[in-house]
Each structure stands twice: as C-alpha cells, then as structure tokens.
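Lecture 7, part B: from sequences to assemblies.

Below are the input chains for today's worked example.
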Amino acid sequence: MKRILFVDDESKILDGIRRMLHADRERWDLQFAVGGEAALRACEAGGFDVVISDMRMPGMDGATLLGHIRDRFPGTVRIVLSGYSDSGLSTRAVPVAHRFLAKPCNGVELQATIERVCILQDLLSTAELRQVVGSIGELPSLSSTYTSLQQAVRNPNTSIPQVAEIIERDMGMSAKVLQLVNSAFFGLAQTVTTLQSAASYLGMETIKNLALASETFRVFAPDSRIPQSFCESIQRQAHRTAAIAGTLPVAKKTRDVTVVSALLHNIGSLILASKMPDRFCSTLARASERGCEDFEAEEELLGISHAEIGAYLLGLWGFPNLAVEAIAHHHHPTRIPHTDFDSSVAVYVADLLAHELEVHPEDSTGSELTESDRTCLKTLGISGRFTEFRHLALESRN
Amino acid sequence: MCRYLLTRDFLGFAQGPPVNELMTIPATYDYRLVTLSVVIAFIASYAALELGGRVTASRGGARLAWLIGIACAMGAGIWSMHYFGMLAYHLPIRVAVASFGILVVTLLFLGFGILTSLVDRRLSTQHLILDDERIMLRALIDNVPDFMYVKDTQGRFVIANVHSARVMGANSPEELLGKTDFDFYPRELAVAFDADEQAVIGSGEPLFNREEKSVDGEGNTIYILTTKVPLRDTNGRVTGVAGIGRDISDRRKMENTLREAERRYREIFDEAIVGMFQSAPEGRLLSVNPAMVRICGYDSPEEMVASITDISRQFYVNSKRREEAMLVMDKLGGVKNFEFEAFRKDGSKIWVTMSSRAVRQNGVVASYEGMIEDITESKLMRSQLFQAQKLESVGQLAAGIAHEINTPTQYIGDNVRFLKDAFRDLEKVRASYERILAAAQNGTLTSETVREVTDALKRTDAGYLAEEIPKAIEQTLEGIDRVSKLVGAMKEFSHPDTKEKTLLDLNHSIQCTITVARNEWKYVADMETDFDPSLPPICCQPGEFNQVILNLIVNAAHAIADVVGKGGPAKGKIKVQTLDCPEWVEIRIQDTGTGIPEKVRARIFDPFFTTKEIGKGTGQGLAIAHSVVVDKHDGSIHFETEDGKGTTFIIRLPKAGKALAAGAASA
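Predicted structure of the full complex, as structure tokens:
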C-alpha cells in the first residue's frame, strides 16, 4: 500500500482532502502534516512514497521542504499543490517537484495524479528494469555545457541571454537546438535564428529539454554490429513523431512537453542498441521472426521494453516527470488514468501515426491498426477522432 | 627854493672878506639838529645797504632802476645829513635856509628808502621762505614714488622728479631736462602722451585721472593714472604742463581680477537654470535672476521685484507654507527641497521646490536667499506614478487575494465531494435498511440479508461518516464565509475613487485593509488589533487612506520577513492600534522587524527612496503615505524605531475642523 503524505499550513484543507480521499483509504495510507517541520518529522518517522505539499507556508516553505525530502528520501515522489503563482517560488520548485497541481484542485485530478505517479514509480523500479539497467552499466555522462545549463535554468535569477550564452558555447548543441526549434513541431510562425529568441519564444525549460534531447542522441553511438541506418531511422522516426505530436490537440501548456517527449520517445531503443547490442539484436530477430512489434519482443525477452528504459534514463537525467511518464507508457497508454487528451495519449497517437505513415505514406484508411491498438483507442475514448488526427498528420507532412 | 640853492647867496663863499678881517664869531650848535643829521645819516646808510642788496639780487633793467634809486636815496640822505649838520651850526648872522622844503624832499627820499627797505625785507623773507620751500618741495617730489614733472609748451621737461627719471631709464632728473617723451618712449606711446599734453595746453583744461598704458625702463607694460594741468603765467597764458602720474599696474591687475570674479559670480546668478532670489522677511523681493523671472512668468527682474511686495500672499498659494519655511530656516538656518504651490504672474499655479537659507546680521535675520525650481511636471509625473503604484499594489494584492480565495475553495470543493460520496454511501445503507424493513414487514427477513446489510455498513464506515459529515458541512460553511468576508473587504478597500472626503469609520476601514492584505503578512507574522471603540468618524479620502494603511502593513510584513527565518523566531508580530486623543486620532502600526537603521532614517519619506532590492519596491509607499497624510489630510506621520527590535509608525489625523500645526510631532 502506498504511503502518501499531505502537507499544508491550513488544517482545513488537509481535512477536506482527507475526507475526499476517504474512499481510497484501502489502497493508500494517507497521512497529514501541518507545516514543513511537521512533515519532515513525519518523513523521518516513516518513509513515504508520495509527498504532496503546498508551496507558501510560514517557516519552511514547500520548495525548501521538498528539497530536503529529495536529498534525504530520493525515492519519494514529490508533488506541489499550490494556490500561489509567485514566479520566483515556482522556479525554485521546478527542480525539486515531479508534478505541479494548482489550487483549487478537483478531487478527480488529484486522485488521477497520485495514481499515475504511483504507477510510474512502480514501473521504473521493477526488478526487470533494474536488471537491464544494471547490465547497461555506467551510463554516458552529459556534457558540461548541459550540466551548466541545467543549473542555470534552476536558478530563478538566470536570464534568457545567460541561458543562450551557455548553449552557444557548444556549437553542436546550439545548432541542434536551433534546428529542433525551427522544425515544424513547435509551430513557430517565423524562423528563429538565435538561441536567445528561441528561449524567449519557448521558455528556458523547453530549451533545456531540447538541449537534453540533442545531448541524448549524441551520447549514444550504437555498436558496430548495429547498422548505421538503424540510428538514422530512429532519429527520423523521432522527428516524425514529434512533428505529428505538434499537430495534435493537447492543452497549450503541455504542448512543448508533448513535443519533446515525442522527440525522445524511442531513445530506449538507441540505448539498448548501444549498450546491450547482443540482446538487442536478439529482440530484433525475435520481432521479425514473430512478426510482432519490437516492443513486444523486448517485453518478452527482457521483461520490459525500450519505453521504460528510455523513460528511466531520462528521469535520471532530469527530464520533466510528465515527459518521462509519456515516454514510459507510449506503447501502453491505458496503464494510467487519463482525464483529458494529455501528453501521454498524444505521444502514443503520434507514434502510431508515424509508423502507419511510414509504411503507407499515402493511405488514409487506417487499415494498419492492430486489434490492441483499436481497443486502446476505444478505452481512451478517441477512436472516433483518429481519422481526424491522421488528416492533420498528413497535412503536416506536406 | 631852487633859485636859492643855486644862488651866490646860498653858496656864500664866492666873495668873502679877507682872511685877516676874519673875526671870531661866537657860534652855537643846535644839538637837536645835530642829532637829526646823525639820524638821517644812519637811515640813509641803512636804506642804501638794503637797496644795495636788492641791486645785487636783481638783473637787467630792474637792476639799473634799483641802482638809480639807491643812488638817489643815498645821495639824498648824505646831502640832507650834511645840510642839517650845517644847520646845526648856528652863527649870529642870519642865514636863510629853505629848510622846510629841503626837509620835505629829504623825508620823501628817506621815506622811499624806508618803504623800499620794508617791502624789500618782506620780499627777501619771502624769498628765503620760498627758497626753503623750494628745497622742501624738491625733497618731496624726489622721494615720492609717483611721476611728477613740468613740461613746457613744446613738451620738453622743465622739471622732473627722481622717480620719473628712474622709470624712464635716466640716471638723474637733470638728464630729462630739455628732452621730450619722444626721447624715451616708443613712438606710439609718446605720440599719445604728447597729444594729451597738447590738448591740455591748447584747451587750457586740465586732464584728470586718465589711465594710460605705458612702458617702464625694462619694457614691461605698466599702467599710469595721470593728471595733467596747464601752467599759466601771470597773463593767463599757458606756459607749460604740470603732470603727476601714479603707477596703478597692481591696482589694475587687482581690479581686473575682482571684476573677472564679479563677472563670473554674476554670470552664475544670471545664467543659472534654477531661479535664484533674495527676499526680505517682511515679504519684499530684493533680487531675482532671469531664470526666476522665467519660472514665474514675469517680463524682467525689475518688474518682478517691483510687483511682488508680499511674498506670502502674492507668491505662495498657501501663505502658511511660507511661515513654515521661515520657521525652519530660523531654527536650522536653511531649508532644503521645500515644496509648495506658487502663483505665476498670470495667476496660474505651479509647484516649486525651494532650497534657501536665512542671512543673519548681528544675529537677526536680515534676508533670505535661495533657489527655486519648477517641479510642476515632475509632480504631475509623480502623481501618475502614485496611481501606477496603487495599481501595482492592487496587482500585488491580487495574487495574494487569489490565493486567499483558492484556499477555502479547495476545501469547500473537497468537502462537498466528500459529502456527495458520503451521501451516496449512506443512501446505499438507507436502501439496504429499507430492504430489511420491507423484508421484516413481509416476514422474509433472513440472516443473509442482515449480513449483507452489516457488510455494507462496515464498508461504508458509517461511524466515520457520522463524525465527519457535520464537520465537513461546518468547514464548508466557514470557507464560504471566509470568501464572502474577503470579497466584502475588497469592495470596501477599493472604494470607488472619489476625490471628495467623506466621514470614514477608521477602525472598520483598517480592518478591511488588514483582511485584504492578509496574504502579505500571514506567513511571517501574527496580527494583533486593538481598536479604540470610541474613535469618531474622520473626514478623509477613503481610497487614499486605505492605500496608506496598506502600504504600512505591507512594509511591516516585509520588515518582519527579513528577520524571520534567519535564525530568529518563526513568526513576528504586527500590532495595529487606534487611539482617540483630544485633538486628533492616532493610528499606530507596530512591527517586530529589522527596525530602520540610523543612516536612512532621515530619508525614508523621500520619493523613490528604497532599501529593497530591485524589483521589490519602488520606494513610493512611504512618500505617498506622507503626501496623503500631511498634505491632503493635514495630519502627521512619524515613526519610532529601534535597530533590530522593530518600528512603529504613528499617524495622526486631526479631528473634524482642526488642523495639526505643521511642526507638531516631527521625528
């Protein structure tokens, strides 16, 4: 049973939440703490799987509290539930929280969020994944440019010119980032020529994620046993998916995350190819032998697919939690509850369409959908709109 | 008588008796006549000697005249002496003498002699005196360090003193004699000097105090103050020029320096961009510079000084302000950045800022002098910024208010959702009870059914619901109440912005402001209020009053925020108190923040002065508070503070009808 801690300075809010989630008391052990200090004491008394905290509290504020929890209990999922929109405070919260919820938060959304983070947490700590990750051994480190960038973006006082300047130190990275920014994914009205304007349009967070994307593709060079064409196809696939994802009707504020998730959704394959080439080869062989998707073959042979591996790695590297989630579930979106057309659904749909259009570039009939896909779409409640999505995707291609 | 003198009778000796016929005649001497002849001899000799001196002293024609004169006098004297000597010898024969006539002639001659000798004596004394004088004068002119000279009509030096000689490069004054300026000075200078002298000679008019440029023996340029006067002879004809000259090079240099300095300082006054003035305490203007004239819309300094006779009434819109200014200048010697509204010539009003000082003579204030600048525009901008600040603070509040509303909304929603679920569960229980009842009424009640119901009840956790439902309802209602109160306070706070003053219940307004600002202080401080229930309504502008209280509360919260969390207590305290005093109402806002450091205390009410970092405040809060309280409401605002302990701001507003004296209660 998951242990969940709620923290707020208003006891009435905690009472309300307690009552509202009373029905979930069977599956979640709900604890409540008034104020940051009490919360820390509760954490010390017994570990929690999830901590949900308000930001503005007297004494120790939410960002500080979650910072402490991250340092001392790194496995705990941290969620911010706040009615406050002070930008300085939000910036401080970004590096320490996995999810953000705004007050007033309706109960359904709260429940869904808790569920999702629990599922992801479970998913990324399965024995199978740990084994695979263990076999991978040491992961390549990211460039110092990216590390400085990451640090800079975390600092609320950093300005856009400073961010641009950091990226510009790495020619390869700036070129790649600009290329990504100018690609159709983001739907910017005009070509962006400088990193500074890119950062102004898309925000520092997105630029950082794009930089991470460019880094990720760079650090994984597949083994010589894997043909070069394979990497290229992975990249092509990534770009195509991102482009399609950009056309899908996600909520505006999650659009950039969606695009970046789509961009990196198959990075797991690249990781497997470069770090576990033998086993990867065998999964590819199995897939062609069985005539199934590669992810199915991976699940069969490794217990997990490239989705989870990619998600796990990106989570380690500080990718936004929503994006990690979207990547982790992009072959099984129904694993988590959805309240709307969110990033996770979008990446799944985009991936589907990208595969389809690769095989049948001109076809608009949707004949390639598997039975499981169809069921998925139905469960998600978007089967009716799939044709519409395909049209949008086709249009974007032309 | 002449006939007798020359006749034989007189001579008598021509034909005389022979010697043997001579007989002794008894004769006598008239000793009076003897004495007289001796006296005459003396007088004649004296006269002769005197005249002799005159002869030696004179020349030419005069000499001849004197010689003849002396000869006559001498001769006459000698003759008369002889004659009277003769007369003194009295024979018994009768001798005819023309004594009377001869006496007269003698006397005449003697008289002439005496007279001339007397005159001569005077003349020679004078001559001696003149001689002495001459020597002394010479000594004077040779020792004086000025030029002194006499020239003839041709410009030749007749007399020159040592100084002239030295400066002109000669060894002695004698060297100059007979020479002209052309022998010593460069041609163009000499021409100039000569022209002057010729003018003097020609016109006969003296030339006084002309400054002329000249050169000394070494070729240096010097300046001479020269006076040249014509010399006339006894006929009034000009015979020469006498001149004196003083070297005024130094004086001139000093004059130039002074003039330059004067000019520079005058320039500062005249060319200054700010208006400068001098005024008298009783209300006249003593002087104004052109800038001042421009600022006030007059045509000239003279016009302005003449027009304004009562500064308090004609210049100051509010004459009290001049009193205040004079009071401060009296006490502190000067006043700085003193703002007031002033009239221009055409009656329009401008805002000006003045820095001025009191000028004292013998300890009494004799005049004021200072500078004035027109700040109408900047004041306009300031009032616009004041509006902007109001909006800014409202905006800042908006975020906090949104949060304040979000919080109850959150738990209201959660509670109601709970109630929904609870109702559904209880409904299931009720339905199952109904089933049991029906079954019981039908007689079909089985233990199965009972167990079902029991299970259902357990699943529902009815006990929990029974306890929590009332609480949920209560807290929901409380939340709603909280939101309403907040909205109500917001309405009160953002009073429709009327410019008029209305009677305001201060306690209520302050409470509303505190509520509206709650999100600003609740994280860092506990709020304590102590309102005097007998506080009368005060006439004031509600919007501005609320703004002031808001600014002070936010300041208090920020001050405490700096202290809290840095090892200090978790929460500070803000205390808001109202007091009803006889003359005024007092509002005290006290915080346990950092206190105001010594060095900034004098400046905290200055516009745009802030100790906060960039982005955290524009420094207008207290300036606005001061302007509103003091200028618009005739109140006072000051503070008590202790470094590290906290600050208390004290606002006093006069009760209806009374105004606080300007100097009262100043920090």
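Note for the exam: Confidence is low (pLDDT under 50) at residues 660-667 of chain B. Keep this in mind when comparing with the next example.
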